[in-house]
């Protein structure tokens, strides 16, 4: 039995924040951000909106796209690094908000590779006969992570005041990573098919805990006693820390390597791929991966310029956009690939039904 994608949907918030907006609250510029990341603008939710809300919107849109009702779903898998609450995850919230009934739900925490791992799990559930229809959703609300404090009113255009020198300095301190992220969600509906030679034809997923500290949030965990403290917050231990150079070197090597492994397992070559849907972390990483594969931007497209890095949302959002643009043709092979914190990475090959 095979699993095929029968519906997609996305949810992106209304608040667009440009690089020029960020230059109002920190020492940066459109040229500085664009040249280092490819990001031109990103979207953020209103206060009080969580990842479960975006996931519900995207999941419901994907159901409608597939022509299904909530009662048709046998299992739900959600991927996020920004749950509404530290505990529990968002899967139960999304199940309830979508009206899916008391089906089994799964929370995936592979960060930027979360949606890739969720697809692997969904394919396994359908392939084993445990489910006929699975909803897979990647959703992120990074706004809560971002260290912009009381300057959010400036970012969102609600105030034309100048930030204080202290606010400006603090925002600048974290600019290397805070300018990269945006909020958004994407969803797919996977269903069983008996059609031969379609669906997910091969995969190559990997984890190396030796690279655990490439991206890490060092505070607010069970290693700490107490779990949360004012000292941790003052030290910024609740915010991500990234080894940008290390991430680049690993991602541009390991994503292409996993693609080649998946191709070998399927008896295919790079020329057999119709399009590569890659995680949208940074345009420099995408350019490096293209170079490693010997391909151009047409095969490995990017949408990071207008969404930023939406972590677990990048793969389904990009796939949805490509589908809407007619870039996903019947019988063609799409390659999904990602690299993220953990470290987790991999690739999956998917052949579209005729």
Word description of this protein:
The protein is α/β, with parallel strands linked by helices. The protein is built from 13 helices and 13 strands. The protein has helices at 19-22, 30-37, 51-66, 91-98, 114-127, 152-155, 165-173, 175-178, 230-234, 244-266, 283-293, 304-307, 314-324; strands at 2-11, 15-18, 41-44, 75-79, 105-108, 133-140, 184-193, 199-207, 215-216, 241-242, 273-278, 333-340, 344-351. The strands form four sheets. It has a five-stranded mixed beta sheet with strand order 1-7-6-4-5, with helices on both faces. A four-stranded mixed beta sheet has the order 8-13-12-11, sandwiched between helices. It has a two-stranded antiparallel ribbon with strand order 2-3. Helix 3 (51-66) packs across helix 4 (91-98). It is globular.
Distance between the termini: 16 Å
Order of helices and strands: EEHHEHEHEHEHHHEEEHEHEHHHEE
How many H/I helical runs?
A: 13
What's the total count of β strands?
Answer: 13
Helix content: 25-40%
Q: Describe the biggest sheet?
A: 5 strands, mixed
The computed structural class is: alpha/beta
- Please compute the radius of gyration using only Cα atoms: 20 Å
Low-confidence segments, ≥5 residues, pLDDT <50? none
Task: Name the strands of the widest sheet in spatial order.
Answer: 1-7-6-4-5
Mean pLDDT: 95
Overall, the morphology is globular
Beta-strand content: 15-25%
